[in-house]
Amino acid sequence: MLKFLKGVVGSGGGIKDLPYNIGEPYATAWGGWTHCRGTSKDDNSPVSIFSYTGSNAQDARLAAARNGAKRLRIVRHPNVLAFLHSTEAETMDGGVLKPTIYLVTEPVVPLAEKIQELDLQGTQRNEYYAWGLTQIARAVSFLNNDCKLVHGNVCLASVVVTATLDWKLHGLDVLSEFDGANPAAAGPMLQYDWLVGTQFKSLELAKSDWNVIRKSPPWALDSWGLGCLIYELFTTAKLVKTEDLRNTAQIPKTLLPDYQKLLASAPARRLNSSKLLENSEFFHNKLVETIQFMEVLNLKDSVEKDVFFRKLPTLAEQLPRPIVTKKLLPLIASALEFGSAAAPALNPLLKIGSWLPKDEFNVKVLPTVVKLFASTDRAIRVGLLQHIDTFGAGLSTQVVDEQIFPHIATGFADTSAFLRELTLKSMLLLAPKLSQRTITGSLLKHLSKLQVDEEPAIRTNTTILLGNIATHLNDATRKRVLINAFTVRALRDGFAPARVAGIMALMATAEYYDASEIATRILPHLVVLTVDSDGDVRTRAFQATEQFLQSVKDHHSKLYNGDATASAAPAASVGDTTSSGLLGWAVGSLASKKSTDLSSTPAETASMSTSMTAPVSQGVAPPSIATHLSAQPRFHADEPATASPTSTEGWGDAQEQPFADDDDEKDGWGDMDLPPEPAPALARIRAAQQKPVTTQAKPVATSTITKSVTRPSVEKVKESSTKSSDGWGEDDDPWAAIAAPPPSTSARALNPSSAPRPSGIGGVRRPVQQAQHVSIDGVSSSGRGRGRAAPMKLGASRIVRTSE
After folding, report:
1. What pLDDT score does 776 carry?
2. Locations of Polar residues compositional bias (predicted)?
3. Segment 31-51 mean pLDDT
4. Rounded alpha-carbon distances, angstroms, from residue 578 to 114, 196, 506, 585
């Protein structure tokens, strides 16, 4: 016996033939059924399980339950409870085996319990009731008018609510065909009419007058049931007797005329449920119209969709919050995911999603957002990037690294400057979630190109971003990238805010540089900017110089006191409030103006504000980059202006960086030398004329020609990178333009004719004036000018030419 019971019941208290787990029951259910929560054994998805246990195999109520299960299986309608599974088994009850029917459906909750849970009041309650009654009226109209069936038991107990707050009709135990057109029909039309409570029966059904019923319209009985449902909804009380239906004090005035027509004493005069929705003003409200528009969204044109979704964020605030989050939100997400909604639907999706708890947002909204990143619609990509701060924190590292970043990365090279800037700013949230392989192999390559972007604001924000994500780089990458990016690129940019960003980035990342790097690679660049023509640049340069000098002094003190670890340890970052503002600056720049035309040419750059944020805004005439070049310190008035860097390669250079790896070329950080631009001969002569003349006393027996190396001006040192990746080669002294040349130790040949002849470009001689500096061009034999300049002769001397 025990073995038999185990075979019937199965392990874990479940039914052997039922692939679902039965959970806790609800407090109410219709017609003797037990309504329980349940889950699937396969995927643990929620379901509802209805069960009825008969007293014996010949129980008439058990036969009605079988009829309800059979009808539910074959009747399919969006507003009728969805059937999933059914089975019948024998269960032990009080020592007696009794037959039990199990009916599995989609997860639902009894309407009475859901109303108490929502606790809506006033207009919002009426709007939700109107939507629910609309769904039940559609189901009843489908049964009566299309299927010629009579439900026979429409009431509050026969309505259940889904997870999306949709109302579904169930309780089909009494459901029968309407045989009024059959003259030979006799006897009861509803075989199980005795299951219907007396208070819910119409006059003719209470009298069992089947002749009158067959002569009545098919909707007569169920229209009466709709009237009973309306009464129980608005009075919040169970219907006890038929006479209570005359109490209309709580029925809305706009619904009262139709309510009275539904309960007409003559069956032929009762209102058809299909006409109820067409005529009643009660069913025309904002909530009903909004949901109905979403249900037929595929039939709407693009103009109607655009107008609707632009108004929806404001409209959603006026609708019942639970219905908006549980009903409207899934509809919007589905429309976006399957392409029936355009980019304007993204704003209401994220706004409504922000009303959800974090865990619920991750389940209902985040999967759709992740899929939208793969969209080729530029407007959707812009919308996602503009609102990434609302959902970026909830993205997992695996999703960002594998699913989102590959799609976002296409925006780095987009033709729209507005989209490039949004992509750049999104990295502030996404970069911490990327793997080191993605950062070094992809992200830094894109940032290297953006730091020489045509838009000054993008170059500035790229430097800001690098300063903020420095903590997420490994040590080798930091040594290879940071100093080159902040000094070679940022500090030489013709855009003053870009130079300020470079200074601030150096200060914010000071902890990653040792004393040697500070002394040889950072301070020389910063000192030059202390005489910059831009006041903000000078101020920041002085602050940074003081900070780094203090770091070097601290390093000296440690060495002086015998600290053996000081030589290898990075220089300690001196506390400075100015360096801590870099992160706030980058976050503040996220408030970029929205582009009005994403398909147009790259966005124009607005003038930088005093707050130093650098957003790209479209529709504003771009300032000429040349106007910002005045910010560079210039000692020679005739020196040509230099533009911002244009190299599209990486930041690293093995010649310039003692810490660079041998495989810099593999990860995109190659040489950043610029193409050589030899200055015209006249410009070099004028520059040489403005240099100080140094003459030396000639020895008695030996005459010397003091040699010096042609050196760029301070401006050229800052902006040109033709020598090495950081501009500070072994022969490039930043102080050469203002310092006297060192004395020469090499003797000049006694025979003047043996001295090398000065030659011009292309072998053409140029006139030589005495008592002035003469530079000898260092053009290589290939004529491309990639070599270093040849040394020039310094000092006043007589040059003897021979005739050719």
Report:
1. 37
2. 597-616, 691-711, 745-756
3. 93
4. 56, 79, 11, 11
